[in-house]
Amino acid sequence: MESTVASEEDHGGRQDRQALARTGSGRRLTESALLVVTAGALAGGGIAWVLGHRDTADACWAVGTALALPPAVAWVVGALRRQRIGVDVIAVLALAGTLAVGEYLAGALIGLMLATGRSLEAAAEQRASRDLRSLLEHAPRSARRRDGPDVAVVPLDEVAPGDVLIVGPGEVVPVDGVVVADPAVLDESVLTGESAQVERHAGEGVRSGVVNAGGVFEVSATATAADSTYAEIVRLARQAGAERAPTVRLAERYAAWFLPLSLALAALAWLVSGSAVRAVAVLVVATPCPLLLATPVAIVSGLSQCARRGAVVRDGGALERLGRARTLVIDKTGTLTVGRPRVLEVVGAPGGPSPGEVLRLAASLDQVSAHVLAEAIVREARARTLSLTSPHDVAEEPGRGITGTVSGHRIVVGRTGLPPADLPEWACAVDNRALLDGAATVWLTVDGVLCGALLLRDPLRHDAPRTIRRLRTAGLNRLLMLTGDRPEPAREVGAVLGLDEVRAGQLPADKIATVREESGRAVTVMVGDGVNDAPALAAADVGVAMGARGSTSASEAADIVLTTDRVARLADAMEIAGRARRIAVQSAAAGMTMSLVAMTAALLGRLPPAPGALLQEVIDMVVILNALRALLPAPGTRPALEPAAESLIHRFATEHDDLRDTLDAIREAAGLLTTESGPHALSAVREINRLLTDRLLPHEHAEEHELYPALNRRLGPEATDTMSRAHAEIERLAQRIATHIRLADEQGGLRPEQLDDLRASLYGLHTILRLHFTQEEESYFSLAP
């Protein structure tokens, strides 16, 4: 496929690019040399001035100013040819004016600022190039084609529709096609972003770029490599990067009116007084340092702040656009969600093993499986510190499950093998629950008997709800989620987060179309992490990639890369960008206002060139010092948590994971009371009471008396008041359950009149605990790194 894409480039185009590359290299060399020369001249003059050699100092500064003038003129001429005009014009006039009136220090400073700005801009352009090497590296270059009984490896360009290709385990499907015979188990995350594997049967279509996650299968090609899905993603990303219009920077927008006004005042001064000196005096105080210095200082300070918060912004233009953004388009999987499945709930059959034992048996067998769901099951078992057993006689059938012997029992983890009509009542309830929760179901069969189930789902990130609220506060007024997932789980995520719109089943072409549509209305930010997001990231006004675990191509196509696996860093970056832009605007406006006052004084003859240059330096210092405020935290920003509070957060987050089996047991006991009320049900309720007394209530008590006081010292007591009320309700329900057990002991068993209230207490406790855990994880646990 790489050769196919490359073949689209003609020889003339390559020559043009080589010529442009040589030109760009020469330009960067010139800019780097000018930076060194102007910095050296300024430093040399400063040393001479300190030593008392004023003439030598002036000579050094004059050389720096004179050397900066020719390239500055060339930059202005080049900009005019592109029909663009900016602050460089005033800088050229000011450089010439400082040479004319002998204000060499001011000229050297202007020259250094020009050289620095050009070098930084060139470096940013080089870093921000849309390099799609990783996309091409992922694409296969050959295919195994069946020709009768023979199989030959052929270049991908030779594959034609109708050819039968063989795709081995772990290989990438080379072209679009349909499955010929055996079912294909595929990892489509490259295209859809969804981590769950899918199964395609004979006659069903498969797309190029997806990975074979199962056994060998055959595919009949329906398109050439150039016309297949993956090649289209490469083309979309290239096209999007090329079509995005260059941004008009903040300083250029101000220069659009400041430049003609400065020239008009200088001309008026010359016309009124008949003196060129007075015109030069106007130009000296019109030197656009508030634009050349203060604006970049504020923006660069914002870039530094973002980097410290784990958001690497490629250039100042991206930060300025982020500060003006009003629409967010965000991917779901790996961005708002964790990006990998997690055990949501464990269910044991009535009279069968407990939920903990179901998880232990399934994880013991899944230790030897590379399936994405198996990894999640094993991870959950280890998080609950369960003791796993080594399996024997293991056999795995892709798309069906894994079979083996664990502790002398024949275990099957995967599908049930039973038609829906033959499922027991409890299993039907699990199926319904999975449908409602948008979860995948993994069944456990022990010695031929269906004994349990595990529900798995890609969960929301703990910091996602808080981040969405912060993004709205930072200025976003439209939030749209795009996902390749099914509509049901997508709508649930949208409802929980309060998003304005949710679009499911999205392919890369759909995403890029949506981003272009939204960008036509307002400055739009696109957030994603997968290869399938790269074209949309390149097309957006601001592309943001989850770089900690996201694809390389997504990071290369983005303007901002979040280096930590936390979407909250986007909210940090947007708050910093908005503040940096406000400070830049404030500095530029204040500096230009003061310059206009000084220009008026120079026009009236009240401010000669030399004092004018000195006054301009004072103005520069004022606006630069104001711009440096962008380096400081915003007023009202809460201080970081103390190390002790962070340690407590990590401790209680771990306890939440350990207590998930208790939540499963509470729900199972409530469900058991629906079908029976005998000794087995009473035993289950007794176990719940033991778990509450020994594990859950001590955890809640420790939170109330250790974690919350530590948080209150930073967040204020109002931040934990409602959580304390939840603790009281949890304890009330636990006492109610304990009272029911005492009554049952006195009466020789559970009475019919107890069942409704006991069941309601268990279901209520389960619901409150799930909500309470979620609120703590969102509000408190997300504060710690």
UniProtKB/TrEMBL annotation:
Location of the Hemerythrin-like domain:
648-783
Gene3D superfamilies this protein is in?
A: Calcium-transporting ATPase, cytoplasmic domain N (3.40.1110.10), Calcium-transporting ATPase, cytoplasmic transduction domain A (2.70.150.10), HAD superfamily/HAD-like (3.40.50.1000), nmb1532 protein domain like (1.20.120.520)
User: What residues does the P-type ATPase A domain cover?
Assistant: 138-237
Q: How does it sit in the membrane?
A: Multi-pass membrane protein
Cited CDD domains = Hr-like
Top-level division of the source organism's lineage: Bacteria
The UniProt regions of compositional bias labelled Basic and acidic residues, in chain numbering, are 8-19
Keyword Nucleotide-binding on entry:
yes
Looking at the UniProt entry, the stretches that span the membrane are 32-52, 59-77, 89-115, 254-273, 279-300
Give the location in the cell: Cell membrane
Kindly list any coiled-coil regions of this protein. none
Q: Where is this region: Disordered?
A: 1-24
Q: Which UniProt keywords apply?
A: ATP-binding, Cell membrane, Membrane, Metal-binding, Nucleotide-binding, Transmembrane, Transmembrane helix
Q: In which family does this protein belong, per the annotation? A: Belongs to the cation transport ATPase (P-type) (TC 3.A.3) family. Type IB subfamily.
**Which protein is depicted?**
Heavy metal translocating P-type ATPase
